[in-house]
Amino acid sequence: MNKGFTLLFSLLFVATTLAISLGVSNLIISQIGLSGTGRDSQFAFYAADSAAECAIYWDRTENKFSTSSPSTISCSGTDNIPVGGDSGGISSFSLNFDNGSCATVEVNKADPEETVITSIGSNPCSGGRKVERGLEIRY
Q1: Does residue 48 surpass a pLDDT of 90?
Q2: Regarding predicted confidence, which is higher, 126 or 54?
Q3: What would the 3-class secondary structure string for the chain be?
Q4: How confident is the model at residue 128 (pLDDT cuts 50, 70, 90)?
């Protein structure tokens, strides 16, 4: 009689341990996915910020986004990016970064009183799930 009880008790113990282990592993897997999303979000934000800073630099120091004449800028190791010209005061360009993130920037100078820079960073740029973060700068 004691042998049957010991077998039943050990099966109950193994089943309970397995259920707890599966629950904990499910929680760990979801936390790993969440931390990956946080990392991708940071990369996307910094891509948007870097691209926006590049646009601000070229606009404020060299006035490269003027609506009258086309010009080129260099950002993040990419040379000869065409900007400006007669496009209704709106210029846009894209940048790819070494860490797999990228950004798309739009500089709107249609209103002579205000410049609006919209920068959308993405990580990763292609494939899988993509995280995007954006910035809008007005001055």
Answers
A1: yes
A2: 54
A3: CHHHHHHHHHHHHHHHHHHHHHHHHHHHHHHHHHHHHHHHHHHHHHHHHHHHHHHHHHHHHHCCCCCCCEEEEEECCEEEEEEECCCCCEEEEEEECCCCCEEEEEEECCCCCCCEEEEEEEECCCCCCCEEEEEEEEC
A4: confident
